[in-house]
Amino acid sequence: MEIKINETEIVLVCGDITKETTDAIVNAANERLAGGAGVDGAIHSAGGPTIMAECRQIGGCPTGQAVITTAGKLKAKYVIHTVGPIYHGGSKGEADLLQNAYRNSLKLAQEKRLQSISFPAISCGIYGYPQDEAARLAMKTCIEFARENTGIKLIRHILFNRKIYDIFSAELKKMV
Ligand code: AR6
């Protein structure tokens, strides 16, 4: 599914983010940038050790913020590492933190003058965010960003299976 907001295309696809050829891919990391399972593990294992070496230099990333490294052996040029919230029931600021993770990743890409970026479904795996609510916030934040900013021409959301693709598509359809 795809929509266009001003100059920016927002695209949802099923797939593996490590195969993406956008300028940047986003990693759903942890605050220590220590690597892990899920999409984080997949990115470090496909990209090779230089990404982790750069993460060690950076040292960490608070929840909702984003940092950037090169992308090692991946086709993308950069990896933007952001940290989504761990879901604790919804009353611990999780919604703001999740929106910040998307917004700060987009801002960083824009500052670096990147034109295209791919996101995974941040916090939708190990961090336990309810997927429909996470999808709504992801779509809302990207649409708002596209309305207010130019420069990024393509925002792709790479959903790892059909179930989460359908959840993201349903939320996007409600907004257009
Ligand atoms: N491409 C696209 N999406 C993927 C891929 C892939 N190759 N692999 C998994 N996903 P998760 P989180 C999906 O758990 O919830 C790590 O250990 C997955 O199916 O990767 O933000 C970190 O180090 C799910 O839909 O991220 C942190 O400690 C989505 O990506 C913690 O997990 C996100 O799931 C972060 O947890």
Topology record:
Blueprint: E1 2-5, E2 8-14, E3 24-28, H1 38-47, H2 49-58, E4 66-70, E5 78-82, H3 94-111, E6 116-119, H4 131-148, E7 154-159, H5 162-175
Parallel strand pairs: 2-7, 3-5, 3-6, 6-7
Antiparallel strand pairs: 1-2, 4-5
Helix pairs in contact: 3-4, 4-5
Bound molecules: ligand AR6.
Ligand AR6 binds next to α1.
Structure characterization notes:
This protein has helices spanning 38-47, 49-58, 94-111, 131-148, 162-175; strands at 2-5, 8-14, 24-28, 66-70, 78-82, 116-119, 154-159. The mean pLDDT is 98. The protein is 40% helix and 20% strand. The chain has one domain (2-175): Leucine Aminopeptidase, subunit E, domain 1, CATH 3.40.220. Bound molecules: ligand AR6.
Can I get a quick summary?
This protein is of the alpha/beta class. Helix content is 40%, strand content 20%.
The CATH architecture name reads: 3-Layer(aba) Sandwich
**Residue share in helices?**
25-40%
**Morphology:** globular
Please indicate the percent range of residues in DSSP E strands (runs of 2 or more): 15-25%
What quaternary form is this?
Answer: single chain
Query: What's the β-strand tally?
Result: 7
Descriptive labels:
176 residues; Leucine Aminopeptidase, subunit E, domain 1; seven-stranded mixed β-sheet; 7 strands; binds ligand AR6
